[in-house]
UniProtKB/TrEMBL annotation:
The keyword Transmembrane helix applies. This is Histidine kinase/HSP90-like ATPase domain-containing protein. CDD domains: HATPase_UhpB-NarQ-NarX-like. The chain crosses the membrane at residues 12-32, 44-63, 75-106, 112-129, 141-160. GO terms for molecular function: phosphorelay sensor kinase activity; protein dimerization activity. GO terms for cellular component: membrane. Residues 288-378 form the Histidine kinase/HSP90-like ATPase domain. Keywords: Kinase, Membrane, Transferase, Transmembrane, Transmembrane helix, Two-component regulatory system. The keyword ATP-binding does not apply. It comes from Arenimonas metalli CF5-1. It holds the Pfam family HATPase_c.
Length: 378
C-alpha cells in the first residue's frame, strides 16, 4: 500500500468520510426548509454536486503532498463550498463540515493565523444563523459549534505536533545511527591499515631476512645440494609473495565505506525514498570527508521533505580521476531559482574547507539538483 492510499484510509480521514456521508444523506433525503431569501428550494442534484466537490477537495488535500499554497487554496475552497451550502440549504448538520475544515487549517497556518481564521469563520456562521436561517438563539448555536471546532482543532494540532516531534526524533536517531556506522567503519579501516602495516613491516621484514639467510646457505657447498634448503627457499618466496598480496588487498580497501551510514541516515524517512549508488572505488580518505558527504546527503533529504515534496531522492557517489563526485537530485516539482538557506550555505562551507565545492540548480522537471566534489587526498 503506497503512502497516499494509507493517508486516504487513515482513521482520522475515515471519520471525516463518515461525517460527510451522514451530512449528505440528510441533505439529499431528509426534509428541510430552504432559507427565506430563496424563492424555492435548490434542486438536490446541485447541492449533491457541491457536497461531492467538498469530498473531492478534502481527499485531495489529505492525500498530498502538495505545495503549501495549493493545500491552503484547497482548504479555502472547502470553506467556500460549506458556506455556499449553508446559504442555499437550511440544514442543521452542514456546520459540521466546518469542523473538517478547521482540522485541516490548523496544520497549514501558524497558530495565531489559525485562531484568527476560526474566529472569522464563526462570525460568518453567526451571521448566517441570524440573518439567513433566522434561528432563535444564533449566538448560543455559534458558540456550541465553535467549541466543537476548538476541540477538534486542539486534537488535530496535538496530533500534528506529535507527528512532527516523532519525525524529528527519527531524524536525530538516524543521524546517530549514521554517525555510529561511520565511527565503526573508521575503526575497521584504522585496524585494517594497522594490520597491513604490521604485516608489511614485521612479517615482511623477517621473511626477507629469512630469504637472505637461506640464499647464503644455498651458496655454502655443504648445503648447496640439500633438498630441504631449496624447499625452504621456495616456501619463503611463496610466503613473502602471499603476504605482499594480502597487504596489497588490504591497501586497496583504504578509506571509509559510506554505504551503511547513508542507508542508516535515510531509513527513518518514509518519503522520499533513497535510491543510492556508490562506486566500488568511491571511498573517502578521512572522517572529515565522510562527515561532509553525510551532511550533504542529509541536507538533500531535509530539503526534499520540507520544500520539494519529492517522492524519490537519487544519490550517486563516484570517483573521477583524483576527486570524489556526489550527485544528489530529487523528483520534486519546484520552480524558480533555488535559494541557499542556512543548510546549503553550511554544506558549501564544509566542502570548501576540505578543498571541494558545491553547485545547486534544478532538474528539468523542477526538482533540486546538488553536485558536490571533494579531492581524494584532502
Amino acid at each position: 500500500m503506497n503512502d497516499r492510499l494509507k493517508q486516504l484510509v487513515s482513521p482520522m480521514n475515515f471519520a471525516g468520510y463518515l461525517a460527510w456521508a451522514a451530512i449528505g444523506w440528510e441533505l439529499v433525503y431528509s426534509s428541510w426548509s430552504p432559507p427565506a431569501w430563496l424563492a424555492q428550494p435548490v434542486p438536490a442534484p446541485a447541492l449533491s454536486a457541491m457536497h461531492l466537490a467538498f469530498l473531492a477537495l478534502f481527499m485531495a488535500t489529505t492525500c498530498g503532498p502538495w505545495p503549501r499554497p495549493v493545500e491552503r487554496a484547497m482548504v479555502l475552497a472547502q470553506l467556500a463550498i460549506t458556506f455556499g451550502l449553508m446559504l442555499l440549504a437550511r440544514n442543521s448538520t452542514l456546520p459540521i463540515l466546518l469542523i473538517l475544515c478547521v482540522v485541516q487549517l490548523v496544520q497549514m497556518w501558524p497558530p495565531r493565523a489559525s485562531v484568527a481564521m476560526v474566529v472569522a469563520i464563526n462570525v460568518g456562521v453567526y451571521l448566517i444563523y441570524r440573518h439567513v436561517w433566522d434561528i432563535g438563539s444564533p449566538l448560543v448555536s455559534t458558540l456550541m459549534h465553535m467549541s466543537f471546532q476548538g476541540f477538534a482543532a486542539l486534537t488535530a494540532w496535538f496530533a500534528f505536533t506529535a507527528g512532527q516531534a516523532r519525525d524529528e526524533l527519527a531524524a536525530a536517531n538516524a543521524d546517530l545511527l549514521a554517525t555510529r556506522s561511520l565511527l565503526a567503519e573508521s575503526a575497521r579501516d584504522s585496524e585494517r591499515l594497522r594490520l597491513s602495516r604490521e604485516l608489511h613491516d614485521v612479517a615482511g621484514h623477517k621473511l626477507t631476512a629469512l630469504k637472505l639467510n637461506l640464499a647464503a646457505l644455498a651458496r655454502d657447498p655443504r648445503f648447496a645440494e640439500e633438498d630441504a634448503v631449496q624447499l625452504c627457499r621456495c616456501l619463503a618466496d611463496e610466503l613473502l609473495a602471499d603476504i605482499r598480496g594480502v597487504v596489497q588487498q588490504m591497501r586497496q580497501g583504504d578509506g571509509l565505506d559510506l554505504v551503511a551510514a547513508l542507508n542508516a541516515l535515510a531509513k527513518p524517512f518514509p518519503r522520499p525514498r533513497l535510491q543510492l549508488e556508490v562506486g566500488e572505488d568511491a571511498r573517502v580518505a578521512t572522517v572529515a570527508q565522510a562527515e561532509a558527504v553525510l551532511r550533504a546527503v542529509q541536507e538533500g533529504l531535509t530539503n526534499a521533505v520540507k520544500h520539494s515534496q519529492a517522492q524519490n531522492l537519487w544519490v550517486v557517489l563516484r570517483r573521477e580521476d583524483e576527486s570524489l563526485r556526489l550527485d544528489i537530485r530529487d523528483d520534486g516539482r519546484g520552480s524558480g531559482e533555488v535559494r541557499a538557506g542556512n543548510g546549503l550555505c553550511g554544506m558549501r562551507e564544509r566542502l570548501e574547507a576540505l578543498g571541494g565545492g558545491l553547485s545547486v540548480g534544478r532538474t528539468g522537471t523542477g526538482g533540486v539538483h546538488l553536485q558536490a566534489w571533494l579531492p581524494v587526498a584532502a
